[in-house]
């Protein structure tokens, strides 16, 4: 009876066992490792674009119309080897893809992140305080989610005009609702748990209960939804750019590059659309693989 | 394994308690009850939603659902006393405990803490009350924040409320852990690394860390193995002696209540039906509901007996019976029981019961 509790029953394991488990489980899954590797390579390529790209596609002085529509593997008279060919304006396609990857990633990642923060704040408030605010917010979310995202973005972009910043705003306007709904649901469940009652009983300040107790316990599902929505955001950005309402023509993202080459697809000049398309697919595929596995790892019900 | 927790000095009689409560009306008195409840009531409503209101416009008769989870409970607890609160699940004992602990606010009635009306407390006094009354929860798996280390779980509140400094926090937390007989070196671990009994100890350490006077134990051992239950119950009793704590011990397990409590309160559908000192109640139960509950305690000596169960189901609290709530299940029900709710009446010194049978001429 007087022995110290803890010397029996479950032997406590090391502190950071949880993250070790996440990492180990990640390493065991070949798909997840492949997805992560793919993402890391693409991110590095995008980050190092100015260093590794054969030319700067934004610098008009480096681009010559004479180099237009070169086949993959041809070298221009200027001496640059166009591994993936050139487009109709003589831009080196590999360089354009590397720079386009940057824009695609920056736009979709920042849009997802901003939407996540907004959704987190609103969802937490709705879940914790409930009442009219909750009812109002959730009906707004219902309406928002029932309208196709592409349509909302198109309307907003038509109203605001094109531009990278406005593209981000339009995408945030779509995705905050998904985050808000998920966070609100999780917050409702967590709020009823006894550790929150204990925090109330200990007379902790309200903001502290919401931030230190509720917020951290709502994060895992948000991370999972975040990766799924990130993949969708990449696709949406590409679609909008393809439709001509996304990024400006002078700074093409992957979607705009695909759109640029679309006209030549049927005439055998496939590469202008094909290679940006491959880059886009790899990016989305990588994000999805990592996101899928993250979901498995963070879901307590699927834990081994 | 279990030592006898009750000592003679702790047996403050219910009669003396009420006498003290009467005096206490004049001035806050240190010798008065720690916690006194007067007509404490909690009503849960489910307001009609838009669809239901629309249906009502069209002639449907959908009423708001109202549950009186706790209905006019009077109770006083003397310093150092252990009051056991028993009753079937759904009788409102947890709701009562949560109101006392300040987690739920009462719909009507008052809580007095050391003679002062809690509803009137502001600022520092309010905080002192909140910290002085702590709660131990039923489920040790959801009552600890899974993302916090033990030292943060135990140390957060004392740090926020200035009971310790950041420099002394580590020693403070370790002292709390040793007090609940846990290895203080575990303070950097997370809750999932512990067993149910250990987690419950951590929950107790968290409550002790704000130096409470009164602890509400809400089915605090119900989720534990029987052997662990005994350890935790003994811990409660040790702490009571070391720190002169007062307990409101909520349990559906009359065996546990008999073992721990000085006084027992029996609740049925949100109302108190009987209240007496533990020995008196177990020896001479007055209310038919109490008698029925006591009959169902499994005992080794009564191995061959057939358990009857209390006949019928506990009625829906949405639509409680008229008169005495227990009359549909009561073997002694009389016509008056259907009409009039019996008030609590003193049937012996310190022994109150709410039953019309006591009104019959002897």
TrEMBL record, chain A:
<feature type="transmembrane region" description="Helical">
    <location>
        <begin position="136"/>
        <end position="158"/>
    </location>
</feature>
<keyword id="KW-0812">Transmembrane</keyword>
<comment type="similarity">
    <text>Belongs to the binding-protein-dependent transport system permease family.</text>
</comment>
<dbReference type="Pfam" id="PF00528">
    <property type="entry name" value="BPD_transp_1"/>
</dbReference>
<dbReference type="InterPro" id="IPR000515">
    <property type="entry name" value="MetI-like"/>
</dbReference>
<feature type="transmembrane region" description="Helical">
    <location>
        <begin position="33"/>
        <end position="53"/>
    </location>
</feature>
<keyword id="KW-1003">Cell membrane</keyword>
<keyword id="KW-0472">Membrane</keyword>
<feature type="transmembrane region" description="Helical">
    <location>
        <begin position="270"/>
        <end position="291"/>
    </location>
</feature>
<feature type="transmembrane region" description="Helical">
    <location>
        <begin position="103"/>
        <end position="129"/>
    </location>
</feature>
<dbReference type="GO" id="GO:0005886">
    <property type="term" value="C:plasma membrane"/>
</dbReference>
<dbReference type="InterPro" id="IPR050366">
    <property type="entry name" value="BP-dependent_transpt_permease"/>
</dbReference>
<feature type="transmembrane region" description="Helical">
    <location>
        <begin position="214"/>
        <end position="235"/>
    </location>
</feature>
<dbReference type="GO" id="GO:0055085">
    <property type="term" value="P:transmembrane transport"/>
</dbReference>
<dbReference type="InterPro" id="IPR035906">
    <property type="entry name" value="MetI-like_sf"/>
</dbReference>
<feature type="transmembrane region" description="Helical">
    <location>
        <begin position="164"/>
        <end position="183"/>
    </location>
</feature>
<protein>
    <submittedName>
        <fullName>ABC transporter permease</fullName>
    </submittedName>
</protein>
<keyword id="KW-0813">Transport</keyword>
<feature type="domain" description="ABC transmembrane type-1">
    <location>
        <begin position="101"/>
        <end position="291"/>
    </location>
</feature>
<dbReference type="InterPro" id="IPR025966">
    <property type="entry name" value="OppC_N"/>
</dbReference>
<keyword id="KW-1133">Transmembrane helix</keyword>
<dbReference type="Pfam" id="PF12911">
    <property type="entry name" value="OppC_N"/>
</dbReference>
TrEMBL record, chain B:
<keyword id="KW-0067">ATP-binding</keyword>
<dbReference type="GO" id="GO:0055085">
    <property type="term" value="P:transmembrane transport"/>
</dbReference>
<feature type="domain" description="ABC transporter">
    <location>
        <begin position="52"/>
        <end position="294"/>
    </location>
</feature>
<dbReference type="InterPro" id="IPR003439">
    <property type="entry name" value="ABC_transporter-like_ATP-bd"/>
</dbReference>
<dbReference type="GO" id="GO:0016887">
    <property type="term" value="F:ATP hydrolysis activity"/>
</dbReference>
<dbReference type="InterPro" id="IPR013563">
    <property type="entry name" value="Oligopep_ABC_C"/>
</dbReference>
<dbReference type="InterPro" id="IPR003593">
    <property type="entry name" value="AAA+_ATPase"/>
</dbReference>
<comment type="similarity">
    <text>Belongs to the ABC transporter superfamily.</text>
</comment>
<keyword id="KW-0547">Nucleotide-binding</keyword>
<dbReference type="InterPro" id="IPR017871">
    <property type="entry name" value="ABC_transporter-like_CS"/>
</dbReference>
<dbReference type="Pfam" id="PF08352">
    <property type="entry name" value="oligo_HPY"/>
</dbReference>
<keyword id="KW-0813">Transport</keyword>
<dbReference type="InterPro" id="IPR027417">
    <property type="entry name" value="P-loop_NTPase"/>
</dbReference>
<dbReference type="InterPro" id="IPR050319">
    <property type="entry name" value="ABC_transp_ATP-bind"/>
</dbReference>
<dbReference type="GO" id="GO:0005886">
    <property type="term" value="C:plasma membrane"/>
</dbReference>
<dbReference type="Pfam" id="PF00005">
    <property type="entry name" value="ABC_tran"/>
</dbReference>
<dbReference type="GO" id="GO:0015833">
    <property type="term" value="P:peptide transport"/>
</dbReference>
<dbReference type="GO" id="GO:0005524">
    <property type="term" value="F:ATP binding"/>
</dbReference>
<protein>
    <submittedName>
        <fullName>ABC transporter ATP-binding protein</fullName>
    </submittedName>
</protein>
């Amino acid at each position: 009876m007087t022995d110290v509790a803890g010397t029996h029953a479950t032997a406590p394991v090391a502190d950071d066992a949880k993250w070790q488990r996440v990492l180990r489980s990640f390493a065991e899954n070949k798909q997840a490792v492949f997805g992560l590797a793919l993402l890391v390579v693409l991110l590095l390529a995008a980050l190092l674009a100015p260093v590794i790209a054969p030319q700067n596609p934004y610098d008009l002085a480096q681009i010559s119309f004479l180099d237009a529509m070169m086949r993959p593997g041809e070298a221009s008279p200027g001496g640059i080897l166009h591994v993936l060919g050139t487009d109709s304006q003589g831009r080196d396609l590999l360089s354009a893809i590397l720079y386009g990857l940057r824009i695609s990633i920056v736009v979709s990642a920042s849009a997802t992140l901003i939407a996540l923060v907004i959704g987190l704040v609103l969802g937490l408030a709705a879940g914790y305080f409930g009442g009219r605010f909750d009812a109002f917010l959730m009906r707004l979310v219902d309406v928002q989610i029932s309208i196709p995202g592409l349509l909302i973005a198109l309307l907003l972009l038509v109203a605001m005009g094109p531009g990278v910043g406005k593209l981000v705003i339009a995408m945030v306007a779509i995705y905050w609702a998904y985050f808000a709904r998920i966070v609100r649901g999780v917050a409702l469940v967590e709020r009823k748990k006894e550790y929150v009652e204990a925090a109330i009983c200990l007379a902790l300040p309200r903001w502290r209960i919401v931030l230190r107790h509720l917020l951290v316990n709502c994060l895992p599902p948000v991370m999972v939804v975040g990766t799924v929505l990130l993949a969708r955001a990449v696709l949406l950005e590409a679609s909008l750019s393809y439709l001509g309402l996304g990024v400006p023509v002078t700074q093409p993202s992957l979607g705009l590059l695909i759109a640029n080459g679309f006209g030549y697809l049927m005439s055998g000049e496939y590469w202008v659309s094909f290679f940006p398309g491959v880059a886009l697919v790899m990016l989305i595929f990588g994000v999805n693989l990592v996101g899928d596995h993250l979901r498995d790892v963070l879901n307590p019900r699927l834990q081994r | 394994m279990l030592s006898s927790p009750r000592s003679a000095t702790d047996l403050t009689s219910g009669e003396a308690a009420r006498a003290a409560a009467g005096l206490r009306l004049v001035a806050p008195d240190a010798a008065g009850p720690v916690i006194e409840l007067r007509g404490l009531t909690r009503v849960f409503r489910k307001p009609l939603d838009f669809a239901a209101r629309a249906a009502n416009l069209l002639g449907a008769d959908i009423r708001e659902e109202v549950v009186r989870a706790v209905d006019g409970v009077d109770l006083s607890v003397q310093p150092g006393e252990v009051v056991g609160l028993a009753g079937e699940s759904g009788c409102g004992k947890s709701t009562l405990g949560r109101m006392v602990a300040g987690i739920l606010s009462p719909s009507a009635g008052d809580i007095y803490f050391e003679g002062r009306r809690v509803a009137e407390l502001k600022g520092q006094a309010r905080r002192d009350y909140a910290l002085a009354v702590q709660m131990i929860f039923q489920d040790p798996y959801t009552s600890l924040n899974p993302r916090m280390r033990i030292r943060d779980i135990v140390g957060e509140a004392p740090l926020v409320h200035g009971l310790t400094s950041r420099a002394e926090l580590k020693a403070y937390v370790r002292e709390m852990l040793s007090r609940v007989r846990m290895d203080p070196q575990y303070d950097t671990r997370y809750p999932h690394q512990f067993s149910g009994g250990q987690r419950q100890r951590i929950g107790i350490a968290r409550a002790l860390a704000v130096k409470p006077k009164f602890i509400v134990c809400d089915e605090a051992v119900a989720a534990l193995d029987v052997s662990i239950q005994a350890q935790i119950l003994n811990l409660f009793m040790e702490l009571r002696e070391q720190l002169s704590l007062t307990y409101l011990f909520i349990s559906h397990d009359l065996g546990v209540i008999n073992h721990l409590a000085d006084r027992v309160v029996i609740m049925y559908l949100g109302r108190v039906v009987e209240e007496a000192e533990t020995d008196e109640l177990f020896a001479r139960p007055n209310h038919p509901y109490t008698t029925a509950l006591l009959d169902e305690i499994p005992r080794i000596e009564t191995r061959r007996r057939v358990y009857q169960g209390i006949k019928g189901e506990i009625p829906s609290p949405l639509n409680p019976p008229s008169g005495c709530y227990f009359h549909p299940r009561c073997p002694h029900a009389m016509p008056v029981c259907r009409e009039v709710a019996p008030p609590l009446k003193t049937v012996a010194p310190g022994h109150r019961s709410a039953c019309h049978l006591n009104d019959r001429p002897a």
